[in-house]
Structure formats: C-alpha cells, structure tokens
Alpha-actinin-2-like
Amino acid sequence: KKKGGMDTDEFRACLISMGYDLGEAEFARIMSVVDPNGKGKVTFQSFVDFMTRETTETDTAEQVAASFRILAADK
C-alpha cells in the first residue's frame, strides 16, 4: 500500500482533471519540477508547491489540498 503521494499516472490524471492539456514534453517538464530525483512519485508537498506556482488566485490552498486527497485516497 502506497502512502503519501501519487505515482506518475495518478499525477497526470490529476492535472488533466484540473484542465491541463499536457503533451509529453510539457508533462516531462512538470515531472522534473515535482519529482527532481526521478523516483516516479509526487509527494503532497511537491504537489502543493507546484500547484501554488501554477494556479490562479481563484484556487485556494484548500481546493488544491482537496484535489490531492481525492486523487491520492487509499494510496
């Protein structure tokens, strides 16, 4: 049972569900930011840091955290 993060596919699904239209190059760029060690895992803190930089003022920290909790549930 995984804990504390999302794998690459889950993270991609999360971004798509939030309206990102990702090509391979753009997704690779984002992964290099959120997973600099290349472990294939996106931690909650990396997710929050990325979303804080990427989202507009309309997305609150709680909305970002809720998105992570929904997509990382039971992991």
The beta strands are 5-7, 41-43.
